[in-house]
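Honest question from a wet-lab person: if I give you the sequences of every part of a complex, can you actually get the arrangement of the whole thing, not just the pieces? Trying it with mine:
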Amino acid sequence: MRWWGWGDPGHGPILTGAALDFLNGEVGVAPDPRPPVALANVSLAASALDEGTLEALRAVVGSEAVRSDHAARVFHAGGKGYPDLVRMRAGEPEGAPDAVLLPSDREHVQRLLAACERSSLAVVPFGGGTSVVGGLAPLRGGHRGVVALEMQRMGRVLGIDRASLTVTVEAGARAAAVEAHLAQRGLTLGHFPQSFEYVSLGGCAATRSAGQASSGYGSIEKMVAGLRLCAPSGEIELPAYPASAAGPSMRQILVGSEGILGVITELSLRVRPAPRERCYEGVFFESFAAGIEALRALAQEHARPEIARLSNEQETRVSLALAAAGGGVKARAGEAYLRARGYGEGCLAILGYEGEPAEVHSRRRRAHALVRHLGALRVGRSPGEAWARSRYEAPYLRDELLTHGVMVETLETATQWSNLKALHDSVERAISETLAAWRTPGLVMCHVSHLYDTGASLYFTFLARQHDEQAIAQWRAVKEAASAAIVHGGGTITHHHAVGRDHAPWMVDEVGTSGRAALQSLKATLDPAGIMNPGKLIA
Amino acid sequence: MRWWGWGDPGHGPILTGAALDFLNGEVGVAPDPRPPVALANVSLAASALDEGTLEALRAVVGSEAVRSDHAARVFHAGGKGYPDLVRMRAGEPEGAPDAVLLPSDREHVQRLLAACERSSLAVVPFGGGTSVVGGLAPLRGGHRGVVALEMQRMGRVLGIDRASLTVTVEAGARAAAVEAHLAQRGLTLGHFPQSFEYVSLGGCAATRSAGQASSGYGSIEKMVAGLRLCAPSGEIELPAYPASAAGPSMRQILVGSEGILGVITELSLRVRPAPRERCYEGVFFESFAAGIEALRALAQEHARPEIARLSNEQETRVSLALAAAGGGVKARAGEAYLRARGYGEGCLAILGYEGEPAEVHSRRRRAHALVRHLGALRVGRSPGEAWARSRYEAPYLRDELLTHGVMVETLETATQWSNLKALHDSVERAISETLAAWRTPGLVMCHVSHLYDTGASLYFTFLARQHDEQAIAQWRAVKEAASAAIVHGGGTITHHHAVGRDHAPWMVDEVGTSGRAALQSLKATLDPAGIMNPGKLIA
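Yes, you can. This is the full assembly:
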């Protein structure tokens, strides 16, 4: 992974000249590219750890598993949120871990936590490094120093229970590696967040991740059957029971705990037979409201696709324009066809069905009847296949846009079906008005995805000309306006990005002062010295 | 509800002479019936509350909402577990609330908790009064007295959100009343625990109840979208979001909290369209193991029924014998038919499908193909309909058996599919051996129900001659042996009966010492004076 941005350093550019021209017309781009600084020019304070402290850590995991070189510290200096990228590209991260620790097993983790507690070191558990909400910020929280607990050596698949359809993995296992392991055995986890190429499953569980196919396979909270957590106060081991009525759900306390209670070290996850049939297709609706009604019907009437995403008018328009700018003739012909059929201002939905052929066939047949009844136009598989090809591309594109001085950020929420359109409108307005007030009018796009019986998520993407001097303040203003609109509009502050540092101010809106006090008491019990990931979630 | 047992006082007897003869042959019955004592002869200590304390409570809710008469205190002296019934029938409950409080709204509840905290009174939230695990035991926990917080006046349906398919109710609302309200509007909650006729929905949420149709509709934890809880430290209000990634799940902390953190006062619950088709049918398997394989296939291969229960050989034999003893010719003819087809020693499963006719039809077709492939014999709808007719009868029968000196108790667990048969065998053995050691050899029956992707529950029912002098000690010995077999055999200590007082000793096996400490810290924060339902869950 690039230290200054997303993904494989060998990944080629995506943005065509025509696409850049389009964006220049929409929001404006910088006259000259702004590449990131060189790694050597990233400025870090010297590590705060003295030789005695380093020796104590080396005594636990061995000397090659305690790193404090420049590259390791820079790489672990944050996640991949917009402010992380802005700062890192400029060579000015807010700080970095004083050391990076690489445990190989649970015993290492437990002993490292004890050593860090003794030495007053804050601990940031580090999985795939993909947090977009400041969940990896190397904050000391009043301690003498801070270390990153890099989980990459704890990536083993420990076993598969075929009868019970579960896989047990170490928490550092990457989603992509586990998916490949399962695929060889005819199974799938079905967890495909946009960060799929890098994300660790422990990180997914710690952040309540939901994948692109969560409408069908469920979010990670539905998949976690059992887990182990190393907390400074001791280990909690929860077997992979299918269900239990034994009090508050300890599983659902540890899932979503974002490293503030301890380190998830092991997971037992529900798997499914790998789908033998996959069909991703495009459907056009005359309006966003009509599309929402259709998705609701699919979710509630036994026709739910594994993948569902309905773009609003703006996102549809921009997607088609960028496709035309990239792909040329075919996309433009498609646009003309839609206009001719009266869907020129409409909304595109991608519906993806996966499973056994006969079951997929009957579910799709029900779905087609439902959407036809609601005025939809099916436009075949090519939009679905185009989406599938580029499903993990957005973070690469974001880096390229940053090079061209374009701010791009995403945020998300979820609410009941009855409130979805109203919440969409008010959040869209809050983002647009704030960007306009900064004299950087934006492109605000949204899609509905992650369908439930009772509601769905809204996922906003917005682009604007990056403010030249105050890029972080500009971002913060929009984030605050959007978050206020979300909590006052009846949405959760986060559907799947997690809380981290960025959403922590709104946790009191989410669970109230008593609820926050309850979470604080959990932390005080499991992490009495307060070393675990300070400044996140309930800071 | 009868104060000494279950149900409507007008409900007639179920046990026929032939059935009693059968049971006499199997486990022995008492020579003479042993009816409960008269209500007036139940011995209670005088209420510990002085006039000043009663006045303070009356000032909150009005004088008719503070009861301390004999009948009210007796009725709230416990739940409907086996030891509760044994003690109550003998007129010797372990204690009773000093008063029964009847709040009418959330503000009442919050102010009553404050008044109880000031007066050092423990508070036992009381919904339908159906706990079978000692969850309602009027324990003082070191306080000056104890009151029951009777929720019956908080039973309103507050609203239905048709688009989002949720209903919002006060927590004292009875499942049966809400189901009737929904039925008039073409909806169903789908929550049908055996206690359905009496249970409150707040009680269901507080105890992680699972209904008989949970394989299809999910257990209550899947239904709770939003809730409000009055804790002594303040109120927690959680809106009905479809999902959230905002930290540990506060919903799943309060669901299952069994009154130890506060009082659930309001719930928003997912509902479904009322099924237009219901089909409950019987299927015979050659063995319990074959039946388990079939249920696993149904659960994992898109053919899961709403209701599934597979009786083991013993439960099948006893059910058929009791049906023959009650119903005569038809049941005996059925038995002869099964023997002729080679299923004489087999296992009966009831599979119940509900929903839209076309969808039910296609799911049943898949189910029939799967079970046929696994050697099952379909025996038509009459066993399913017989089960449906008597689905809430077991607690009535239990009272009649107690009158005849027969101990009858149930307990349950859940585990992974790969472990289900082994856990069944070890728990069955533990119960049988303990009963034999007490020289009261028993009938130990079991069924698999509540299907999940990764496993299912085991529900044990056992009958034995009640020990004449030491009925409670006899019961406790079996309970301890079965619980030890469950936790050592890889099962959860409770799948849907909850923890209460009876399972509290095994919570440390369930969540570990760190997990239990975490739960204790939640309680210390939300209920700092420790007045809420002391002695339960994490005692």
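Two things worth pointing out. Residues 154 and 172 of chain A are 5 Å apart (CA to CA). The longest helix of chain A spans residues 507-526.
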